[in-house]
Amino acid sequence: MMKLPTYFSDFLRNIRLTPSQINDLITGHTTLRDRLNKDETLSKIIVSTFLQGSYRRSTAIRPKNEQRSDVDVIVVTRLSQDEYTPEQAMKVFEPFLEKYYAGKYRYQGRSIGIELSYVDLDLVITSAPSEAEEGILQSEDLLNTYSIEDYEEISKSVSTPIPFFLTESTTEPEWKTSPLFIPDRNVEKWVKTHPLEQIRWTWNKNAKCNKHYVNVVKALKWWKRINDPENNPKSYPLEHLIGQSCPDGIESVAEGVTFTLEYIVDNYKEKPFLSDHGVPEHDVLGRVTDEEYEAFYEKVKDAAIIARKALDAETVEESAEEWRKLFGNKFPEPPKRSTNSSNSTGSQGGFTTRTDKTIPGGGRFA
Question: Strand, coil or helix: what is 238?
Fold first, then answer.
């Protein structure tokens, strides 16, 4: 079985966010948070702000054509659903947006998009949580900017307790069972979301997959981008489908990619109903049309065949060439065939001579 660990490490290094892009995300978010906390009007109705989305879950990939990175910022408010419609709740933020982001913001279906020169922010406001949850949502663990991979790297060298929102809490279960409500302008309703449960689920899934799961997601997001960038599913719906299809216990990214694609082929020929984490009545694929899913499924079938050939190849060269068919030129080229036929190390484990240091991790503490 060709797992090609160093090839995948280099590939992932090529597609994950760069340190400068991560710094841009943090700068954009912390600047927004500081301005909100200092705003005379909004500071009185804000409970908490925290990061969510693919960056927090460590499933983000490098922006297309080196464009700006984006980050989702949850702003938990004390606005009542009984007193504010979704439209009215968003309009509460308009004076603030005009002051700091005039000409750079736009109202979206469920968020307010802010386009800066160096980063895109998605401002997602929520209605008032229960009084018991306010303290939980103000936890320092939740307010920091660490991603799942950051926490994993910290835990290797520092005796740091795992944050409460990443574990199965028994003493404070409220955050698990109570989703937040965000405004949906399209349907003029407040709708449920549970970003903490999505983060927690990803953390636990990654542990069950020997820390390979988030990298499987990044790899398949990249495959989708270069092979079918416009068609749905993409973004979180694609990630959720991968999560439901990737088996526990995988021992490499190569296995995870192959097994995930094959699982979709075998089990999801027709568009499934996939319950969201923490909001089981919400179908994550609900906005994906049957026609879009059918086109996606056909591409998955082709990709599964290529991935299986790559995994079962007899040589490193053959395996790497197949993976490049899926992932493009960000996946390393195999070494040129040399006159020395004893390439036993490479053919067994995929190790090649490198001039650059391979960095398998993706956080800020390597």
Answer: helix
Among 10, 24, 72, 228, the one annotated catalytic: 72
CB 125 within 8 A of CB 179: no
CA distance 293 to 275: 17
For residue 258, give the 3-state DSSP assignment. Answer: helix
70 part of the active site: yes
* CA nearest to 165, candidates 190, 202, 193: 202
Burial class (CB in 10 A: 0-12, 13-18, 19+), 266: exposed
Of 335, 331, 338, give the one whose Cα is nearest residue 354.
335
Which residues sit opposite 260 in a β-bridge? none
* pLDDT per position as a tens digit, 181-211: 999 998 899 999 999 899 999 999 999 999 9
Question: 70, 120, 150, 228: which one is catalytic?
Answer: 70
**Using alpha carbons only, how large is the chain's radius of gyration in Å?**
22
CA distances from 312 to 53, 254, 255 (A): 34, 10, 10
**In this predicted structure, what is the pLDDT of residue 177?**
52
Residue-level length of the chain: 366
**228 carries an active-site annotation:** no
Q: What's the pLDDT tens digit per position in 99-118?
A: 999 999 999 999 999 999 99
- The predicted model scores a pTM of 0.88
In 214-294, where do the E strands start and end? 275-276, 279-283
pLDDT at 88: 96
